[in-house]
């Protein structure tokens, strides 16, 4: 009986070890993973043969270094990443390195051989997140894209008061375009590059709280996310192209529909936009 108990305990221990290995991945997260999860999470591993305090401290330093590398890979807009922003601006570099010191430790473990593993995380949105830290700096440093023109319908449209069952959120399906890249700045534009949606449309507190948009891998998940944001009847449009990796192009008919429904419910100002990815 005792042998069975020991065997079961060993199997449970092995299973937990496998779970920890999954949670404490040494591989740096991709840009896709960061935006679909909404946070950057990394692991730091120390050398063996140390006491618990020293090992955890050393692993924390490694985790902070890995976190900085992961943040550098976050796409700002087009082909520009945070790495380039830090290279071109000492202010951005200083602020990014500073805010990483406030990263959350999401787990730690000390092993019998004297090494430790530490998990650290920073969120994209919320107070102290990547959006709150970077977007004001990017604006000051002139790194945000400037719209050539904002979209206005070319033909006469029905006034918002005449719309039955007006939509209160937006889902953009970009599944047909695997080269689309989630970024701090994702815009929705027409084929003529008239901007329908970008961060300037979003109220500052909302932009800080949840960023430019949400990112999911299915329409159902997109609806659930928008429901959490107070949207019960989103308009769903399909991308017809992608420009500069981060600008989603839609048809003029869809642009007109978004324009009219937004006039009624102001969902763009409230950042109720979700991109459905490949």
Structure write-up:
It is a single chain. This protein is of the alpha/beta class. It folds into two domains: 113 residues, no CATH class; 128 residues, no CATH class. The chain is 40% helix and 21% strand. The chain is built from nine helices and 14 strands. The strands form four sheets. Strands 6-9-8-13-12 form a five-stranded mixed sheet, with helices on one face. Strand 4 and strand 5 form a beta hairpin. Helix 4 packs across helix 5 and helix 5 runs antiparallel to helix 6. It is elongated and about 75 Å long. The N terminus is likely disordered.
List the helices and strands and how they pair.
Layout: H1 2-23, H2 31-37, E1 39-45, H3 52-72, E2 75-77, E3 80-81, H4 82-88, H5 90-100, E4 104-110, E5 116-123, H6 130-140, E6 149-150, E7 170-173, E8 187-189, E9 194-197, H7 204-210, E10 214-216, H8 219-228, E11 235-238, E12 241-243, E13 247-249, H9 252-265, E14 273-276
Parallel strand pairs: 6-9, 7-11, 7-14, 8-13, 10-14
Antiparallel strand pairs: 1-5, 2-3, 4-5, 8-9, 12-13
Summarize, please.
Helix content is 40%, strand content 21%. It starts with a helix and ends with a strand. It contains nine helices and 14 strands.
């Amino acid at each position: 009986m005792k042998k069975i108990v020991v065997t079961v305990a060993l199997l449970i221990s092995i299973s937990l070890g496998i779970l920890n290995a999954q949670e404490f991945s040494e591989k740096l997260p991709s840009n896709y993973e960061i935006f679909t999860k909404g946070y950057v999470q990394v692991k730091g591993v120390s050398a063996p043969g140390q006491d618990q305090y020293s090992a955890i401290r050393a692993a924390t330093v490694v985790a902070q270094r890995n976190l900085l590398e992961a943040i550098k890979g976050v796409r700002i807009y087009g082909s520009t990443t945070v790495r380039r922003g830090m290279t071109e601006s000492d202010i951005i570099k200083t602020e990014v390195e500073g805010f990483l010191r406030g990263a959350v430790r999401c787990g730690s473990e000390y092993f019998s051989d004297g090494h430790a593993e530490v998990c650290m995380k920073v969120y994209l949105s919320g107070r102290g997140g990547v959006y709150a830290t970077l977007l004001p700096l990017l604006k000051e440093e002139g790194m945000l894209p400037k719209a050539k023109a904002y979209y206005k319908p070319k033909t006469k449209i029905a006034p918002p008061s005449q719309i039955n069952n007006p939509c209160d959120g937006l889902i953009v399906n970009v599944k047909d375009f695997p080269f689309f890249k989630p970024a701090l700045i994702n815009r929705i534009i027409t084929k003529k590059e008239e901007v329908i949606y970008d961060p300037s449309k979003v109220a500052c507190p909302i932009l800080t709280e949840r960023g430019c948009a949400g990112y999911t891998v299915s329409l159902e998940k997109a609806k659930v996310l928008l429901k959490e944001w107070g949207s019960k009847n989103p308009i769903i449009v399909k991308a017809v192209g992608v420009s500069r990796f981060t600008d989603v192009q839609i048809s003029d008919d869809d642009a007109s529909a978004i324009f009219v429904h937004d006039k009624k419910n102001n969902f763009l100002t409230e950042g109720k936009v979700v991109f459905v990815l490949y």
